[in-house]
Amino acid sequence: MKAFAFFSLAVVVLIGGAAECALGRRAAPVEAEAESWTGGVLWFAALVNLAACWLAFIPFGVARVRSSGLMFEMALAAVPIRLLLACGALLWGIWHGPWPAMPLMLWMVIFYLALLAVETGWMIRLMHAENEQRAADRPTVRDGSCKR
Amino acid sequence: MSTFPLVLAAGDPIEHLAPHPITTFGPVVFTSHMLMLLLSAVLMATIFIVAARNYPLVPTGTRNLLDTLLEFVRSTIARPILGEQTDRYIPFLWTLFFFILINNVLGFVPLDAFLAVSVGHQNVFGAATASLSVTAGLATLVFFAIHAAGVFQQTRLQVHQGRSVLTAAPFGVAFYLYRLVPHVPGVIGVILFPLLLVLELVGTVIRAFALAMRLFANMMAGHVVMVTVLLMIPTARGLASVGIAVPTVIGCIALSLLELFVAFLQAYIFVFLTCLFIGAVIKGEH
User: Fold this and answer.
1) What is the least distance, in Å, from the CA of B168 to any CA of chain A?
2) Which parts of chain A sit beneath pLDDT 50?
3) What is the rounded CA–CA span in Å between residue A127 and residue A62?
4) Which residues of chain B neighbour A83 with C-beta distances below 8 Å?
């Protein structure tokens, strides 16, 4: 879980930093236009997506502490929770005007997809770990816990 | 000027159905449809409160009619779908059924025509369910009711499994959202989950949208057809008007009867589909 939190933070900072450098440098002569596509909007989208990602894992955290049998279900349930939180923030942005919200929409989609990739990878790892655990717990003939 | 065309309908059929502003309360414009909604709410509250207070051992008259309709909604529509949980949702379903039914039927009462003849004012009353805003409002209510029913059901299941309400609540929300998507095992299931989720979420919105459109289109079409048929009479002159008026009036009576049936049918369909959607989230895997 800590690794996931760290990795998601790293991905968001990397993408945000790279975009800031690339767009800021390229569009230096027209600063006003560049500012509308980078800066506040970019980091706002990053922050919202990261916060939504971490908030969505609250049920997973509860399951990890209280009942470990539900961990995988709760991890999958984080996907819709995050989607709803991100969509809510995006709608709030669009409410203030659809055209000024275009850069926000773009960055939200980019960060959402980036974090979705991180999330999916982490969930596949979690699923493999659970399957291995289940296989290890299953009684076998060789260790004598199960009759032939 | 004769009030004949005024009584029959407004100049064009859509004008007859469009919401007309009556007064304003600050930024809120109070329209004819809002008046109809308020009128039907007051009518409904009055009828049911009076009927519930006078509770004879053997029901008669109005009470008998209401009992029949209430029992029809409970036993024929809700119970086969919701089963043991019928009584949990039946107050909402009853309210929805009677509110839609009263609004549908009030749309056929020529209140506006009476007002036009007696006072000279027009466009004060109208058919509220022939307005997309009204049906969209009802569908939005159903949309939230479906999801709330799903979340409460999952929370209840968690509480039954011995969890405290505080722990069960986040699990309830999470489980409901998890169960929205059909289960696909393995890695492919994890990868497909976001895509299927988007489809399912769009599906829930479309269901509510279809509810709104169905009621709106059926009620509006009925009114438009009737007004259009009636408008044939003022177009004829002399003896021809008699030849046109007689079949038009007979046709309008037949159409009115059909529309009365449609008013009941649409209330039934709206509540039946709401039941189906609630049943799907509280019972099935999906």
Assistant:
1) 10
2) none
3) 18
4) 194, 197-198, 201
